[in-house]
Amino acid sequence: MYGVRLESLRDRFRIFRDKSASSVPVGTLYEEHYHTLVVAPATSNTVAKCAFGISDTLPTNMFAQAGKLGIPSYVFACDTEPVVVTRAPHDWVVLRPRRIEFENLERLRAIDHCSVACSIAELEAALGARLQALSLAWNTSSS
After folding, report:
1. pLDDT tens for each residue of 96-137
2. Is residue 124 classed as helix, strand or coil in its secondary structure?
3. Phi/psi at 14 (nearest 5 deg)?
4. What confidence category does residue 143 fall into, taking pLDDT thresholds of 50, 70 and 90?
5. CA-CA distance, 80 to 98, in Å (whole number)?
6. Where in the chain are the domains?
7. Cα(59)–Cα(21) distance, rounded to whole angstroms?
8. Short-list 109, 130, 129, 112, CA closest to 34
9. Domain 21-129 classified CATH 3.90.1150.10?
10. How many Cβ atoms from other residues are within 10 Å of residue 101's Cβ?
11. How many CB atoms lie within 10 A of CB 141?
């Protein structure tokens, strides 16, 4: 929709295409392959599902299972300000999130092992602190 090809993302990110009802990626959580989960960006739909414990997509299923395992999750939520300017496929649009979006953010913040970031800078700072706590460093050459 945005004209970004998956091939261009694979150089910098690990991409999952969920054809398995999330079982394969979620199973790696049980094998202790991951110390942290990042859901970014998280649409208002994903935030609502996570906030209410609905796990029917790869991101929401990973979030639920990570929480049950005590793995910290960082969610970069989209609708966090009274006015949000965002890029649509052909132009920029102004959105005004509803009260329900803000209520869902508060519900999400109250979930164990979950941190909500409202900006890229906030997400980077939280992840930097997480890596430091684990005695790890950013590695930009891997996914």
Report:
1. 999 999 999 999 999 999 999 999 999 999 999 999 999 988
2. helix
3. -85, 120
4. very low
5. 10
6. 21-129
7. 11
8. 130
9. no
10. 20
11. 6
Here the tokens at position 65 are: 């299972």
Largest CA distance in the chain: 43
Residues 46, 58: contact at Cβ < 8 Å? no
Question: DSSP for the chain?
Answer: --S--HHHHHTTS------STTHHHHHHHHTT--S-EEEEEE-HHHHHHHHTT---SHHHHHHHHHHHHT--EEEEES--SSSEEEE-SSSEEEE---HHHHHHHHHHHTSTTEEEESSHHHHHHHHHHHHHHTT----TT--
In DSSP notation, 62-91 reads HHHHHHHHT--EEEEES--SSSEEEE-SSS
25 contacts 15 by C-beta, under 8 angstroms:
no
Write the CA distances from 19 to 37, 59, 69, 134, integer angstroms: 20, 13, 23, 32
The contacts of residue 96 (CB under 8 Å, 6+ apart) are: 82, 83, 84
